[in-house]
Amino acid sequence: MLKKTVSQLQPYVPETPLPELEKKLGLTSVVRLSANENPFGTSPQVQQALQDWDFSNSRYYPDGDASALRQAVADYVKVAPERLLFGNGLDEVIELVSRTFLENGDEVLELGPTFSEYKLHAQIEDTIVRDVPVQSDGSADLPALAAAITAQTKLIWLCNPNNPTGTAVTCAAIAKFMAQVPQNVLVLIDEAYMDFVDDLATYTALPLLNDYSNLMVLRTFSKAYGLANFRVGYAVMPPKLAPSLQSVRLPYNLGAVAQLAAQTALADQDFLQSTVTRVKKARQQWQAFLQQHDFTFYRSQANFTFFQAPNALKLADYLLQHGFIVRTGLRPDWLRITFGTSEQNTQLQRLILAFYQK
Ligand SMILES: *Cc1c(COP(=O)(O)O)cnc(C)c1O
């Protein structure tokens, strides 16, 4: 009865709700550093806007065009509003892109390892996915990615900075790569973590959008803006492709409250900057820690670190017993840890040293 590609899938295992976990572990508080959420919260202006929201609007369908949010994001990224597509989280944009472009016989290229949603949706659409391994420093191997293109290649996913390795490739390197990509192959740059890089102008691919009609840049409000619960992500795309994606999108995929939250969060650039400053400081501090204690790790440009941890599953369990959830299962004996508040980082690093008796 099931479509063949779906019968082979395993359901996504969601994070256990924190209250449930706290009860199970007998702890008063558990800190989740496994999902790259913002440890500094969300702009207080969002809370105010939600309180001021007119509840009598509840019975109306939301603005299906997300006009106000669309205009605000268009101003922010400096493109025409028609070139934006909004999704119920960037997850939905990834699904929409896969649904719109992929059919049986197509091939998808991605980095290995990278964000798992690209492969999931490519598999549902019955296409073949090929992983191009990252280099020994964790960064994307763009020449290898270009060399892997075949006549069947339809989409190329490039997560930058890459989840889980945390490393980033420069816009100049992407420009060089794009020059080798045939026009009928669509390149998707997932910039979910772009807010955190050391120098935005060096890394974002946004300036390339005017030069290529086969390039899209994807962003989300879930990470740096601390809005994961509201599910808002977007793509900036070539003008020609926008109408097709809009036809595949569900008409009311974004609620009014989500639109309002995202628009308000975007307007509070001070909050964003304070988050980014704190994340950069945590990044330096984690890097120094890992270096000092001889861990193998990649140079992160994101809000998390990916490092080799002997006995990673045991360490993760030890950290959980002490109130910290970290991400396992991305590569054997490697862990991905989201940077927390400076207090949390200190505590976590102490626990890691205690586990290894360093
Ligand atoms: C978190 C994440 C997303 C999904 O973000 P949502 O907007 O919350 O759906 C997309 N891409 C990458 C690389 C991510 O890490």
TrEMBL record:
Residues where N6-(pyridoxal phosphate)lysine is found: K223
Top-level taxon in the UniProt lineage: Bacteria
Keyword Amino-acid biosynthesis among UniProt keywords: yes
Pathway membership, UniProt: Amino-acid biosynthesis; L-histidine biosynthesis; L-histidine from 5-phospho-alpha-D-ribose 1-diphosphate: step 7/9
Catalytic activity: L-histidinol phosphate + 2-oxoglutarate = 3-(imidazol-4-yl)-2-oxopropyl phosphate + L-glutamate
Domain Aminotransferase class I/classII large span(s) in chain numbering: 29-348
Protein name: Histidinol-phosphate aminotransferase
Family: Belongs to the class-II pyridoxal-phosphate-dependent aminotransferase family. Histidinol-phosphate aminotransferase subfamily.
EC number: 2.6.1.9
One MF term in the entry's GO annotations: histidinol-phosphate transaminase activity
Key words of the record: Amino-acid biosynthesis, Aminotransferase, Histidine biosynthesis, Pyridoxal phosphate, Transferase
First-level EC class: transferase
Subunit comment: Homodimer.
Matches recorded under HAMAP family: HisC_aminotrans_2
Co-factor(s): pyridoxal 5'-phosphate
